[in-house]
Write a structure and sequence with these properties.
It contains 6 helices and 4 strands. The protein is α+β, with helices and mostly antiparallel strands. It folds into 2 domains: about 1-95, no CATH class; about 115-185, no CATH class. Helix 4 (about 135-145) crosses helix 6. A hairpin with a 6-residue loop joins strand 1 (about 10-20) and strand 2.
Length: about 190
């Protein structure tokens, strides 16, 4: 895919072989060089050694248009960037790999009762201007005890609705996503 991406002339590409944290991963970082409605747009191909038969694709943009991206905009970007390269790859190597986008349409995210309780406990008791150590404990409990990961844009909206400033809501949503990623490594 890296060689095919370079042939197109649409990307600057970095190849990283990372074994930090005991898990070996190969990462292809594709940054779009042509015009796009999204700022600093691109994607990563990630292969973990223990699951080498699967390639994880992460689309990235410093700023999406619209922000957060609507599902249609995200799917369009995925098919434009990754889908076109995947077609060329399949033709070149006689394979039948497919691009699959995670969440099924028609099934919007719904908070479970447990997640709703943990989130409610955090937002109603938190000092929205300056988090107290007890607030942080409730935030960590939201991650540790939660069985359901809240999408970033939904968590941001919930935090802003509870009175958190937009910048702090964005930072907490990003921290939440990082903590969930760490939780998955166990």
């Amino acid at each position: 895919m890296i060689a095919i991406g370079r042939e197109t002339g649409r990307f600057t590409i970095e190849h990283v072989d990372d074994s930090a944290g005991g898990t070996r991963m190969e990462i292809g970082n594709f940054r779009l060089t042509t015009a796009s409605p999204h700022r600093d747009h691109g994607f990563q191909l990630i292969v973990r050694e223990e699951k080498s038969d699967r390639v994880r694709v992460e689309l990235r943009a410093q700023r999406w248009s619209p922000e957060p991206p609507a599902r249609a905009a995200y799917e369009e970007a995925a098919h434009d960037l990754v889908g076109t390269l995947l077609k060329r790859y399949n033709r070149s190597f006689g394979t039948r790999h497919r691009l699959r986008i995670g969440v099924r349409e028609g099934r919007p995210f719904k908070l479970s009762q447990r997640t709703r309780t943990l989130l409610h406990r955090f937002v109603t008791l938190a000092n929205t201007r300056s988090l107290h150590p007890f607030d942080w404990h409730r935030f960590y409990a939201l991650v540790r005890e939660g069985r359901q990961e809240i999408p970033g844009h939904i968590l941001r909206d919930e935090l802003e609705r509870a009175g958190f400033p937009p910048e702090q809501a964005r930072e907490l949503a990003q921290l939440y996503a990082h903590l969930w990623e760490f939780k998955r490594l166990r």
